[in-house]
């Protein structure tokens, strides 16, 4: 049975970063960059109930804050989910995969921090939680996002056609990426 995120020893460190669980009092810090035009371009305006994410994180998945030298520079979301399974095998599909998402302060992009943080999230998912699959999605026009997915070894599984409503109000194509635990292990060795 996979462990839970709450069972892990936080914070988790990488070569340059620290990942820690978000707390309710982190909401304003995250909102400070989630409201910037470069972030809003892909994620949209933060919703009015933004602070609820921090008050009830189980609704949205685990939000891990990315810190560099004690300053919050972004976040990674890990949302553990059930896989589809026929009724008699439902218990085998419970909590076996996760969706990832991320956001970084615009001034911190281009330095490899997002890649380092997502690689740490993959390690958490596969080594610490024992998950079998991790996936992520983005708008096809969000080149930095899908290139990051490719850098960390995720493979493109789908190119969807005008299935997502971009914050501009335009229907846009999307890309779905995924990585299986055995693929991740082969890549690490």
TrEMBL record:
Keyword flag Membrane: no
Q: Which organism is it from?
A: Cryptosporangium phraense
Q: Which InterPro entries does this one have?
A: Acyl_CoA_acyltransferase, GNAT_dom, N-acetyltransferase
Q: Which UniProt keywords apply?
A: Transferase
What is the protein's given name? GNAT family N-acetyltransferase
Q: Where are the membrane-spanning stretches?
A: none
Q: Which domain of life is it from?
A: Bacteria
The GO terms this record gives for MF are: acyltransferase activity, transferring groups other than amino-acyl groups
Task: Give all residue intervals belonging to the N-acetyltransferase domain.
Answer: 17-182
